[in-house]
Amino acid sequence: MDGNEVFDNKYIGKLNAVYDTNQDKPYLVGFADFISEKSYSTVYAYVGRVARFMNDVNKKPSELTLDDYTAFLAKEKNKTASYQIVVYTALREFSRYLSATKVNTLNPMQYKKRPKFKESNKTKQKRENGYLEGDQLAEYISNVENGICGMKTADKAWTLRDYFVVMLFLNTGMRCAALWKLNVDNIDIENKVLKTIDKGEKVQIYPLSDKMIEITKRWLADRELKLNGKHEDALVISKYLTRISQGCIADIVTKYAIDIKGKHITPHKLRATAITAVYEGSGKNIYVAQQFAGHSNPKVTELYVRGQKDKARELGADIMSKITKV
């Protein structure tokens, strides 16, 4: 089955679970249909937030006021800025849906401003620590290639797969969900490209280096031996010879960094590592890094570029030392 279909079916199942546990809220189905142009994962995220909101206020949709929405959003102030924005957007769309269907003609959320994206100091610190640089990255890649993960030795039968996964992350900067969706036919060996559908249903085309093509060919050959005639569309498979789970992908990425002091590396942090390296290697060109990351806005890319604040201060101090001759 196509990876995108597998992904969609996963979230369709999650949506149905929300409906089943909220049978007193039949309007959730209508709301999901109202925002059906969005991906199933986004629809699930929005419907889930709305269900929680309606459980919290304990009112009929027709009785909702601006104060109800505002009070609920105020309770989310201790969450991350990105989470608050998702909740806000879900409630804004729900308010618009109720207005469009004449259930609640007020549309109160049209008067509520979107929360500003402001990172907490804790989040900033996590971001700055959440990437690999220089010798750390070289050590990490060596660990993966040689199957070294802390006190344990990786399963040698699957180290080539693990190496392929990590190198694909680093050479494309793709998200975990996008890699999980990949099928064999997403790889075009002859033209040295990989095509996939990423967040927001965007089609992404990644050029692959000769070295990445060589690693891919090795993995494809090993994959065929493991499958031993069994049909499976997924590019990356588990030891059960089925599409690997996102949790297993995360475990692969994390386990090889266990000996690198102060680093807990996840697929998202590996993506930040790749984006930062491209930014540095392009002469700090944020637009090159933006295109590599597949972001629609360079401001988003800036959140992924790590370690720049301290380097900017060091550069500034060096410049001023020369000017002041101190």
Overview of the molecule:
59% of the residues lie in helices and 6% in strands. The protein is globular, with a radius of gyration of 23 Å. The longest helix has 20 residues, at 81-100. It folds into two domains: 3-118, DNA polymerase, domain 1, CATH 1.10.150; 125-314, hpI Integrase, Chain A (Orthogonal Bundle). Strands 3-4-5 form a three-stranded antiparallel sheet. Strands 1-2 form a two-stranded antiparallel ribbon. Helix 1 (3-21) runs parallel beside helix 3 (40-57) and helix 3 (40-57) crosses helix 5. It is mainly alpha-helical. Mean pLDDT is 86; it is low at 309-317.
Keywords:
single chain; 326 residues; mainly alpha; DNA polymerase, domain 1; hpI Integrase, Chain A; three-stranded antiparallel beta sheet; two-stranded antiparallel ribbon; 59% helix
Largest sheet: 3 strands, antiparallel
Q: Find the CATH topology of the largest domain.
A: hpI Integrase, Chain A
Task: Give the CATH H-level superfamily of the largest domain.
Answer: Intergrase catalytic core
What is the strand tally? 5
Describe the strand arrangement of the main beta sheet, using strand numbers: 3-4-5
* Name of the top-level CATH class of the largest domain: Mainly Alpha
- Class computed from helices, strands and strand pairing: mainly alpha
